[in-house]
Amino acid sequence: MLLGLVCFCLYAGAASVILLKFFDHKGPNLKLSYLLAVIALALHAWLLNSDIFVSMGENLSMLNVASLVAWLISLTMLLAAFTMPNTILLPVVYSFSGVIILLDLFIPDAHIMHIGVQPKLMIHIGLALFAYACLGIALLYALQLAYINMRLKEKKASLLHSSLPPLMMVEGILFKLLTVGTILLTLSLISGFMFLENMFAQGQAHKTILSILAWLVFSVELFGHFKFGWRGKPIIFATILGSVLLSLAYFGSRFVKEIILS
């Protein structure tokens, strides 16, 4: 409990350091924010290890999976911060990770699996987690793209002094993330059909159908961009729609079973 609260405070501190000075002409103290985030990620990893790997198997409850995804996204975004413009997204990512840790502390739950004796299942789950994390980051860039578009239309002077990156650069990163995420999602679906007995069995059908719908949205979005030059609002809307479908596939029924009905 204590380490979880410390981890939350570190994430909150890392986010606050950026937010409080984001529009300042000197910019935020990124070194301090990175230091706090690194310590938070290390504690978060320790918490994940103790929460997931239990004596009976692997506890892949909804909140543990969400915490793992949050950790993957936070780690990726922190590493990307040294080469890609994502300062405005870091407070969002850190805040999400902090909130998930708090929820996991105060809403304990268990969903025990035995992945260690099922390497094929481990491959499928790993691909699914990385696909969701990558497309989750793509969603953040789509929201950043929408925000930059809005600020440019309003011609806000503060935009010139903020840490916002160039519009075209954000758009380029978004499509790279969408491409990689869609490929991972494709591999995840293929591995599911290959390694799992029945992807349309009771309790699994909605996940499969929603995941396929999300895959179709992302695939059409990418095809439209590379074939017809789609960009702007249609791309942002499609990315949000695909992410919502994928979130419902991954967490929808488990949220009802593990949180609402528990």
Automatic annotation (TrEMBL):
Coiled coil: none annotated. GO terms for cellular component: plasma membrane. InterPro entries: Cyt_c_assembly, YpjD/HemX. One of its GO terms (biological process) is cytochrome complex assembly. GO terms for molecular function: heme binding. Keywords: Membrane, Transmembrane, Transmembrane helix. Residues 35-260 form the Cytochrome c assembly protein domain. The keyword 4Fe-4S does not apply. It comes from the Bacteria. The keyword Transmembrane helix applies. The chain crosses the membrane at residues 30-48, 60-82, 88-107, 127-148, 173-196, 208-228, 234-252. Signal peptide: none annotated. This is Inner membrane protein ypjD. It comes from Paraglaciecola polaris LMG 21857. The gene is ypjD.
